[in-house]
From TrEMBL:
Its main location: membrane. The keyword Transmembrane helix applies. PANTHER family: OS05G0424000 PROTEIN-RELATED. It is found in: Cell membrane; Endomembrane system. The keyword Transmembrane applies. This is Solute carrier family 38. It is a multi-pass membrane protein. The chain crosses the membrane at residues 30-51, 57-80, 115-136, 178-202. Belongs to the amino acid/polyamine transporter 2 family. Amino acid/auxin permease (AAAP) (TC 2.A.18.1) subfamily. GO terms for biological process: amino acid transport; auxin-activated signaling pathway. GO terms for cellular component: endomembrane system; plasma membrane. Keywords: Amino-acid transport, Auxin signaling pathway, Cell membrane, Membrane, Symport, Transmembrane, Transmembrane helix, Transport. The lineage of its organism: Eukaryota, Viridiplantae, Streptophyta, Embryophyta, Tracheophyta. Carrier protein involved in proton-driven auxin influx. Mediates the formation of auxin gradient from developing leaves (site of auxin biosynthesis) to tips by contributing to the loading of auxin in vascular tissues and facilitating acropetal (base to tip) auxin transport within inner tissues of the root apex, and basipetal (tip to base) auxin transport within outer tissues of the root apex. May be involved in lateral roots and nodules formation.
Length: 211
């Protein structure tokens, strides 16, 4: 209540020291954004990757890349402000941070790499989404036909449908303000991981009983 009263009497309370609208995120929303950005679709192939590496190399590689991610996150956080870490100018994007510390030419190269990465990620998600939708339909087809129908299907329809949905959703104004989407995505990633872990344990227990 007191904070609301201060904001009504002082309009500057709505803005940061650089004139931009004051951020209202919390540790929880930031954590959800980080989890969603770092995990992404990688969790879908995590079980297969660990199976290929084995129980020794698999966890070791995960710990190694966790350390790499943690270290690069520290470096990125240190670049949030240019100059003084408390009063220096904020860098709101990765490209701005690169421009502030490495110059304009490196910023252009960074932007090129970022857009190439976004393009690759978009293609990857489109393919993964179409494969997932096909898997669901194929599973229903097998059950309905009793395994007699080969259930052949074309993935182009699903790719185009997913692309159209993405184009429509991208038209939502201030889409970045929908913070709850990251929380939903983080919960879904954890749910998928826990489900996969449970199925793996159940399968292993079944093998032990058969032995």
């Amino acid at each position: 209540m007191l904070e609301d009263g201060v904001r009504r009497t002082n309009p500057l309370a709505f803005f940061d020291d650089d004139g931009r609208r004051k951020r209202t995120g919390t540790v929880w929303t930031a954590s959800a954004h980080i989890i969603t950005a770092v995990i992404g679709s990688g969790v879908l192939s995590l079980a297969w990757a660990i199976a290929q590496l084995g129980w020794v190399a698999g966890p070791a590689v995960m710990v190694l890349f966790s350390a790499v991610t943690y270290y690069t996150s520290i470096l990125l956080a240190a670049c949030y402000r240019t100059g003084d870490q408390l009063t220096g100018r904020r860098n709101y994007t990765y490209t701005q941070a690169v421009r502030s510390y490495l110059g304009g030419m490196n910023a252009k190269f960074c932007a090129l790499v970022q857009y190439a990465n976004l393009f690759g990620v978009a293609v990857g998600y489109t393919i993964a989404a179409s494969i997932s939708m096909m898997a669901v339909k194929r599973s229903n087809c097998y059950h309905n036909s009793g395994g007699k129908d080969p259930c052949k299907m074309n993935s182009n329809v699903y790719m185009i449908s997913f692309g159209i949905v993405q184009i429509v959703l991208s038209q939502i104004p201030d889409f970045k303000e929908l913070w709850w989407l990251s929380i939903v995505a983080a919960v879904m990633s954890f749910t998928y991981s826990i489900t996969g872990l449970g199925l793996g344990i159940a399968k292993q227990m079944g093998r032990l009983k058969e032995a």
